[in-house]
Protein: TonB family C-terminal domain-containing protein
Amino acid sequence: MRKWYPAMLLTAIVTAAAPAQAGGGSLDKDEIREVVKAHLQEIRACYNEGLARKPTLAGKLTVDFEIAPSGEVNSSEIQQGSTLADAKVEGCIASAVQSWKFPAPTGGSVQVSYPFELLPG
Structure:
């Protein structure tokens, strides 16, 4: 039996050197990227559950989330247009992101859109 090892290509909307801003606050994109990177195992675990059901599962999705002034994630959802087409995996990823803690933004909340490409490897 072949084992699937998911490869995740990460491309982020938050790639510029300027801080992410929305809702009046700002947070450095590198700080956002570091938190996402620290939690990639959670994203992989969600994806692996989907691969167990459908070994060819692949696609792109973007998670929209709001980082509160405290650094907690207020809300997290998958944008319309996900090509992953697996509601369980998408829900799992949105729930995982909801539990993350970021550094406190300066000046208020921050809205982030973070894309992931999930491919079986």
